Amino acid sequence: MAVVGPLSVIFNLLLSLLVSHLHFTILTQGEGRWEDKYPFIREASTFSSFSDSYDYIIVGGGTAGCPLAATLSTKFRVLLVERGGVPFTNANVSFMQNFHISLADTSSTSASQFFVSTDGVFNSRARILGGGTCINAGFYTRAGPSYIEKAGWDSKLVNESYPWVEKQIVQRPNLAPWQEAVGGTIFDHFGRRHSAAELLASANPNKLDVLVHATVQKIDFDTSGKKPRAVGVIFKDENGKEHKAFLSTRKGSEIIVSSGAIGSPHILMLSGIGPKAELEKLNITVVLDNKFVGQGMSDNPLNTIFVPTNRPVEQSLIQTVGITKKGVYIEASSGFGQSGDSISCHHGVASAEIGQLSTIPPKQRTVEAIEAYRRSKKNIPHEAFRGGFILEKIALPLSRGNISLVTTNPDDNPSITFNYFSHPRDLKRCVNGIRIVEKIAKSKHFTNFTQCNKETLDRLLNMSVQANVNLIPKHTHNTESLEQFCKDTVITIWHYHGGCQVGKVIAPNHKVLGVHRLRVIDGSTFKESPGTNPQATVMMMGRYMGVKILRERLGKAAGL
Questions:
Q1: Is 216 marked as binding a ligand?
Q2: pTM for the complete prediction?
């Protein structure tokens, strides 16, 4: 609802304040105070270095870290450290209609940390308890049996671990009309998100400590033996004060890094595990020379076509996925350009702004240029933002990149390269996917929203090329070359993975090769992204590995 005319500014401001108040009321009163439900979550500054040691220290309270911590705490004392804050009172995280606003927030306190890969593609990484499940589109789908078999996982335990997650946070979606053209979701029927952070409700509150705004500086090692031995974690609290958490000397105690595909290799390198030459350039003491840390990075390239409609469409995120025989997935989103706050920011995958940077030379396409456009486009009519996107994503990309250090500050993003479409098979799949999208845009269902013939589709392709989706030089009016279209309009859907892969950085049991008492458990260990969306499998893996570790350590006494 929006009002135009002399009173429009005042009315819409009051309406916005009312909605914000209702959201705040729901967040603070709807299910009781989060502090009562999660009494073990506290600010990092409350930590005492004289606290008892922990059986497990988990670095990263994200998609894998939360279910892992909840599981391990049923039997042992666990410390979970997370650099971000809590999601429970953050309306931009909690409500589907604010999905794009969280991603557009580039402030230092945002739930998402903005970065641009060296490829020129805008991207984000989570910075909040619950990780990527707090800033994603919510789609939930299990990995197929072939993926489970290839990973070497115990299928019985896998099929017990998925339901453990699903019973707590997964919902059946009500399909919006736009979605019918193309699982499950972690958004409930009221549009409220249920993230991995809520899996902490299954923890033993007497054995779990969760510190938020705790930024890990490095893992500490004892290097006096034949192999380096992890002994603790050094972190800074929200005030910049440094603390050290100690690992118990009991047999089986471990530090587990679960900081995501970017965070985990980044932390290993800052701690002295990585390519020797790169570490020495930044005067980092080498604990273990491993040239594979940060290598094998991959991101599923995404290309979209914006389809303007003849009327407003309901807001919807990805609820269904079309699985094709061409090696691509077809997805859809709609309605995220129609509100006043939406027109005031850029949204990456959900951007309906057309022509933002097309007249600016590539080297001048800076964050400042984007911000200038964001301010100027507030006068664009709402009608220009009506519509939705048809998305095509490469299922199993073969192109590979890497992560390298830029500074020794853990708050700074490392240099990240994905090398999109460097493998010719990826480019061929993209072309096939765009052809499928063209057919969908001309289908009977979509003609209910707009008329699409070949001339219209050519215009849509050119509009998509001109959009502000990345910093790659554009080749406008070249719709005859779908290969060029794929390269020009590539964006991310945040399914990047790799950097700490099995057999190169970790063993099949996720223990870091060449080091004692250290594991990595998250998407950085994947060679391929599981299923159509990885979050289900990453949460499952947190539970799965937690149970495996307890069984290894306790045997039948684990009771799991």
A1: yes
A2: 0.84
